[in-house]
C-alpha cells in the first residue's frame, strides 16, 4: 500500500464530518509537542491501544469488534511516563485507560469504598500520585472505528514526524499495540439503516488495507538527529506460527522491532525480534510483582540510549 | 417458540462449562429473594440492560455487538431502589452500572479530582449515599454473549417466579430493557480458531429465537396473589413503524406493557402501550432536571398500586 492509496481509502470510507472533526487533533498534537519539548521529557512515544470496531450499517446499530482490553497500551504508557517520556495514546473508546484502570477494574463495592476513604489504599494512592505528577505529559486521543483509527494514526504520525520542528532532537518511538480488525465493509456497500431480515443475514467483509509500511515510511523519513524506533506487535496462538509471522512482519512493515505475544501468555512472556539481529531475539519474562510492559519499555529505552552513545546498531 | 425448543437451543449453543458456571446464579438469586422478602422491600424488579455480543469464532477473537450503553437499565434500577424496590440487574459486561456510572462517565481529570476530594461534589455524594443505603437490595448478574443472556434471563425468571416461595406475596415486574441481537452463528457452524482469509470474509448469521413469549408464559403462570407485570421495550427510528411494532409486540409476546422508544429521542420521550388499553397509550416526556426512567418507574408503580387496591384492570 502507498500513501496515495491510503488517502483514497479514507476519502471513500470516512464521513466528511468525521474527517473535519479529526483534523482538530493535528493542532492539539502540535501544541502538545511544543509543551513537552520545552519540558524535561527524554522522548516522545506514540502508543496505540484497544480493539477497532467495524460498523455494519451507515447509521450503525451493529458493529464487529475484536477482543482487546487495551491493557497493553495502558501499561506501556504508565511505564513510559514514569521514565520521563511524553506519551500520545491513541485508544479505542472502550480501551482501559492508563492510571484510572486500577479503579475502573474494581468491583462496585470496593470502588465506592476507595472513593469515600479519607486515606486511599497504597495502590490507589500510588497511581493518583503518578497521574498528578505526569498528567501534562500525556495526551489521550480516542477513536471508534477501524477507519477512524487508521486516519488518526497517520495524522498523528505525520504531525510528530514532519510538522513538529521542536521534536527533531527528541528521541521517538511508535508502539502500534492496537488490535486492528482485518476486515471491514466499504462505505459504498453499507446498508443505510438497521439491516432487517427474517431468514438470517449474510455479510461480506473486505480486507482492511495493510498500512504499517506507509507509517514506517513516514516515520523513518523524518529529518531528525536522534533515534526513531518503529515497533509493532504480533499476536498468535501457536509458537511456531508466531515466530514465522513476527519475522515476516519485520521486513513486510519495515519495523525496527516486532514484539511477539502468544495469546495464552501475553501478560507473562514476550519475544522481541530486532530488525538488525532477527536471529537472536530477546525473551522477556514477567518478574514477580512486576509487569511485562515495564520490561518491554526498559528494553526499548536501553536500545535508544545505546543508539545515542554510538554503541548501537551498525 | 416453546420452552422445550429453547432448552434445545441452549444445549446446542452453550459450552458445557458455561452452563455449569451460570447455574450458581440460581442459588444466589434465591438467597437474594430470601433476604429482600424479609426486609421492607415493596417489590422485586428483574431488569435487563446492555447489548448482547455474538462471537464469530469458538475461541472468540471477534464479536458482533450492538450499540447499547445500558443507561436505560441502570436508570430504571436507580429509580426503583430509591422507591424501596429490590432489583436484580442482568447486565452486559460493558453496560453502564447503576450509581457508579456517574463516576465512570467522567473524564480522567475530573475522575481523579473527585476521587481525591475530601468533600465530594453534590452529584457524587448523592449517589454514594443512595448506593450505601440500598446496596443490599441490588443483585448484579453479568453476561457476555446473546446465548448467555437468554440462558440467564430464563434461569432467573424461573427462580423468582417458581422457586422462591418467599416472593409469592411480593409484587414483581420484569423490565426487559436489553438490546438483544437478532442474529447469531450456531455453535456447530463456528470456526474453531480465528478466521483467516486474504480475500475478505463472508459470514452467515442465523436468527436468534424469539424468547419473550416463553418468558411471559413463565412469568404469568406463577402461583401468586399479587401483581406481576411483564414489560418489554421497542426501539425504532420511525414514529409510525414504532407504534405498529409496539402494538404487535403486546400480543406477540403477551406482555402487559410495551415501552416504545424512538432512537432519536429515547432519553426525552417514550410512549407506554398497556395491554388492556392499547388504544390510549401514556406519553411520558422528560421533565427539566429529571430523568425519563423516573417517570417510567412511577407510571409502572402506580399501576401496581392500582391493581393492589382493586382499581386497576378488568
Automatic annotation (TrEMBL), chains A, B:
Q: Where is the DNA/pantothenate metabolism flavoprotein C-terminal domain?
A: 173-266
Q: Gene3D superfamilies per the record?
A: CoaB-like
A Gene Ontology BP annotation from the UniProt entry? coenzyme A biosynthetic process
Q: Which residues form the signal peptide?
A: none
Could you tell me the superkingdom of the organism this chain comes from? Eukaryota
Q: Give the Gene Ontology MF terms in alphabetical order.
A: catalytic activity
The family annotation for this protein states:
Belongs to the PPC synthetase family.
Which protein, by its recorded name, is this? DNA/pantothenate metabolism flavoprotein C-terminal domain-containing protein
Q: What is the lineage of its organism?
A: Eukaryota, Discoba, Euglenozoa, Kinetoplastea, Metakinetoplastina
Amino acid at each position: 500500500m502507498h500513501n496515495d492509496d491510503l488517502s483514497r481509502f479514507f476519502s471513500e470510507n470516512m464521513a466528511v464530518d468525521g474527517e473535519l472533526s479529526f483534523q482538530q487533533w493535528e493542532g492539539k498534537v502540535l501544541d502538545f509537542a511544543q509543551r513537552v519539548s520545552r519540558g524535561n521529557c527524554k522522548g516522545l512515544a506514540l502508543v496505540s491501544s484497544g480493539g477497532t470496531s467495524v460498523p455494519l450499517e451507515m447509521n450503525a446499530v451493529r458493529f464487529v469488534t475484536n477482543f482487546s482490553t487495551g491493557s497493553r497500551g495502558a501499561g506501556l504508557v504508565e511505564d513510559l511516563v514514569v521514565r520521563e517520556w511524553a506519551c500520545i495514546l491513541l485508544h479505542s473508546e472502550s480501551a482501559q485507560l492508563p492510571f484510572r484502570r486500577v479503579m475502573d477494574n474494581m468491583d462496585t463495592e470496593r470502588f465506592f469504598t476507595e472513593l469515600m476513604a479519607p486515606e486511599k489504599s497504597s495502590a490507589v494512592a500510588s497511581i493518583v500520585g503518578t497521574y498528578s505528577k505526569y498528567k501534562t505529559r500525556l495526551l489521550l486521543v480516542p477513536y471508534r472505528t477501524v477507519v477512524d483509527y487508521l486516519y488518526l494514526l497517520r495524522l498523528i504520525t505525520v504531525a510528530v514526524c514532519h510538522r513538529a520542528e521542536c521534536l527533531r532532537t527528541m528521541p521517538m518511538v511508535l508502539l502500534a499495540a492496537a488490535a486492528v480488525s482485518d476486515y471491514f465493509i466499504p462505505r459504498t456497500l453499507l446498508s443505510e439503516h438497521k439491516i432487517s431480515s427474517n431468514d438470517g443475514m449474510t455479510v461480506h467483509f473486505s480486507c482492511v488495507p495493510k498500512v504499517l509500511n506507509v507509517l514506517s515510511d513516514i516515520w523513518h523519513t523524518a529529518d531528525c538527529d536522534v533515534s526513531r524506533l518503529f515497533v509493532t506487535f504480533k499476536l498468535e496462538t501457536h509458537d511456531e506460527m508466531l515466530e514465522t509471522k513476527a519475522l515476516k512482519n519485520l521486513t513486510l512493515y519495515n519495523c525496527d522491532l516486532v514484539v511477539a505475544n502468544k495469546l495464552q501468555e501475553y501478560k507473562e512472556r514476550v519475544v522481541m525480534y530486532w530488525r538488525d539481529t532477527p536471529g537472536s531475539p530477546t525473551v522477556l519474562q514477567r518478574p514477580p510483582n512486576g509487569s511485562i510492559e515495564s520490561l518491554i519499555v526498559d528494553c526499548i529505552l536501553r536500545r535508544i540510549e545505546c543508539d545515542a552513545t554510538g554503541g548501537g546498531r551498525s
